[in-house]
Amino acid sequence: MVFENYTFTYPMAEKESLSQISLQFNKGQTIGIVGRTGAGKTSLVRQFLRQYPLGQGTFTINGESVTRYVRRSIEEKIGYVSQEHILFSKSILENISLGKKGASQEEIMDAIAQAAFSDDLERMSDGLDTLIGEKGVSVSGGQKQRISLARAFLRDAQLLLLDDSLSAVDAKTEQAIIETIQRERQGKTTLIVSHRLSAVHQADWILVLDQGRIVEEGTASDLLAQEGWYYEQYQRQQRQEGE
């Protein structure tokens, strides 16, 4: 997937949300996208989902314009976990099984393990049959995120989009999930949007957005050496974790 001089403005908006974006996502890479609130991170993710009309510039998949692809064919290749981590008032099993029709029990349990949700599930008296939502048990923000992640891992899509999907889990759990992504998704592409730099620090390539533009990019080592926004944010978050 390649963007070249890509600019996007939401319908009825005056200000550009993405401006002159040029980047390339290669198969098998883990890409991190960071930046302050309102920098354009989610707007970039939404371009993959085709939720809005395309912007100006070039957006290609395998060398062909994205307009050559039917939206459904793109959706079939994408696993997406949003900030809202949408769940339904059904059992945990039913919520996770939405990721893959006809999935086996083994596949579902593997996905749960990859999402670091196994221990939580064992503490629930009804296990996979536990009802959540209005008529079921109350689950924490971190548990909601991991149920949504399990659904995405079960889907095992060629492109996995995580839009600030680890914000409610602790550092240890976050690290376990990142290690799972690196181990289990070899040969597949993963895009991680995060406010916490620890979630992207091991990514193959990191983009820093500000006001819809790419202002820094490189590996974590590259960005720390530049002593720009990423460096300052990394130092600040390290101090906070040490307090």
UniProtKB/TrEMBL annotation:
Transmembrane portions of the chain: none
All residue ranges annotated as the ABC transporter domain in the record: 1-236
Places the protein is found: Cell membrane
Membrane topology, as annotated: Multi-pass membrane protein
Gene3D superfamilies registered for this protein in UniProt: P-loop containing nucleotide triphosphate hydrolases (3.40.50.300)
SMART domains with a match to the protein in the record: AAA
One Pfam family hit: ABC_tran
GO molecular function, one term: ATP binding
GO cellular component, one term: plasma membrane
UniProt keyword terms in alphabetical order: ATP-binding, Cell membrane, Membrane, Nucleotide-binding, Transmembrane, Transmembrane helix, Transport
Keyword Transmembrane: yes
Organism superkingdom: Bacteria
InterPro entries in alphabetical order: AAA+_ATPase (IPR003593), ABC_transporter-like_ATP-bd (IPR003439), ABC_transporter-like_CS (IPR017871), P-loop_NTPase (IPR027417), Type_1_exporter (IPR039421)
Protein name per the record: ABC-type multidrug transport system, ATPase and permease component
Source species: Streptococcus oralis
